[in-house]
Amino acid sequence: MTDGSKKIEAQQREQPDPYEGNHPIPKFVIALVTLAFGWSIYYIASSNLSNRPELGDRRTVADLAPPAGAKSGVVDGAQIYAAQCVACHQASGAGLPGVFPPLAASEWVNGKESVAAQILLHGISGSLTVKGAVYKGEMPAFQGKLNDSEIAAVLTHIRSSFGNAAGKVDAALVKTERETHKDRKLPWNGDDELGKLK
Description:
The chain is mainly α. It has a domain at 77-197: Cytochrome c-like domain (Cytochrome Bc1 Complex, Chain D, domain 2), CATH 1.10.760. Helix content is 46%, strand content 6%. The protein is built from ten helices and five strands. The protein has helices spanning 3-13, 27-46, 61-64, 77-84, 86-89, 107-110, 113-122, 148-159, 171-180, 190-197; strands at 124-125, 128-130, 133-135, 138-139, 188-189. The chain has a three-stranded mixed sheet with strand order 4-1-5. A two-stranded antiparallel ribbon has the order 2-3. The termini are far apart. The mean pLDDT is 84.
């Protein structure tokens, strides 16, 4: 067998290159793509593009206005609690046993307003006793994250929720507490330091 006949035999064993031939793209796929393309053009053409982009879910400015009778500029402590505190202290204020202390019936929450404000402003590190149980976690400082009104609002919320019945905290008190310890850079060392402020 010559080299030429070996090549021809090898070529005959090869499969032909693929090509569409009698198997083009199915007509239903072409129809589906055409329909989707046509619908998208119609949707864009019929959309009301005069709405402000920040109201993309078709709400109007009136929908976003505060409820009737609400005071303007009032900070919602419950909303701040949900955004900043609920992950640790839970929606019920019960915390997580052995990990995060409860706010419900807590002597720190129901105690002096100034101590509660200091806890939020500077945070806590080290052992803290709450309702007879010792917690050794860390609580972040919120002095750089929340302003005086926001801290007052969240303190008022936790002091009047979860079965607590302590008084309202105002922004002026928080401002005074912020000024009193403005040079403090570290969190409070749990019972050792906060116990002296009680």
